[in-house]
Design goal:
- By secondary structure, the chain is an all-alpha fold.
- It has a domain at 30-91.
- 71% of the residues lie in helices and 0% in strands.
- It has three helices and no strands.
- The N and C termini lie far apart (42 Å).
- 32% of the residues are buried.
Length: 91
């Protein structure tokens, strides 16, 4: 996979995962860029956890359901950690 396409895939998966995680966590969200960042970091976290605990190799490859699910779970975990540390937005 070309580096440019890999970056685009990570951004698309991050956007989807961050948006879905924001909906599930019922927060006010972090805006488009914030959701992408949460999704991408969540993807890294989810990919690491999937590899470590579930022994799934290359859990974050391309734009597919497995990748979105792994990034989504990682984004949920990340949002929980952010809110526990008091960094979440409150209205």
């Amino acid at each position: 996979m070309e580096i440019g396409m890999g970056l685009v895939a990570w951004i698309v998966v991050g956007l989807i995962a961050g948006f879905l995680a924001g909906l599930v966590m019922k927060g006010s969200g972090y805006g488009l860029i914030g959701d992408i960042i949460v999704g991408i970091i969540g993807g890294l976290l989810g990919g690491y956890l999937a590899g470590y605990f579930l022994h799934i190799k290359n859990a974050m490859t391309g734009i597919n359901l497995e990748t979105i699910l792994v990034a989504f779970v990682g984004a949920i975990i990340l949002l929980v950690l952010i809110r526990l540390l008091g960094g979440g937005r409150r209205r």
